[in-house]
Amino acid sequence: MAYPEFLIAPMREELTRLGVEELRTAEAVDSAVAAKGSLMLVVNSVCGCAAGKARPGIAMALQHAKKPDRVTTVFAGADEEATRRAREYFPGMPPSSPSVAILQDGELVYMMHRHQIEMRSADEIAAELRAAFDKFCANQAIA
How many degrees, rounded to 5, is the angle at CA 91 between CA 55 and CA 57? Predict the structure, then answer.
């Protein structure tokens, strides 16, 4: 059962106000993944302990000089079809929300799972994401 929109709207906005593109359908996920270049795909969630640190960590990481070409998000427990499709692009990875994936030309090259988020601070999450951007992203496409 999906979460009520009024409950998750502020959590969606934490990412969308940064310019993160919401993917609410399977087709939108397929289109984003099909694009050439680097794509960060965030599986957002209501989990207070992990998502409450993940979103600020992502915001800090996106201030880095190197960033993915595109940054997108699906919302677990709300955009169920989109979330299911996104997870199909993470072969061999268990479902995890929140989580952060980086794909390069449609291939998964990096994954941060919930268990890697929940015991860290937003600063530590941002530092790990910046290191992943340095390794896997060549462009500075996000304003």
Answer: 15
Range of the domain at 19: 5-136
* 101-111 core/surface letters (b: 16 or more CB in 10 A; e: else): bbbbeeebebb
Q: The domain spanning residue 82 has which CATH number?
A: 3.40.30.10
Question: Is 137 a known active-site residue?
Answer: no
Domain assignment present for residue 111? The answer is: yes
Whether 122 has a pLDDT exceeding 50, the answer reads yes
Give pLDDT tens digits for 14-61.
Answer: 999 999 999 999 999 999 999 999 999 999 998 777 878 999 999 999
Ramachandran angles phi, psi of 100, nearest 5°: -135, 125
- Specify the pLDDT at position 143: 45
Tokens of 76: 């677990």
Domains in the chain, number: 1
From 2, 9, 34, 49, the catalytic residue: 49
Q: Is the pTM of this model over 0.85?
A: yes
Catalytically annotated residue among 8, 39, 47, 132: 47
Q: Is 47 a catalytic residue?
A: yes
d(CA 19, CA 34): 20
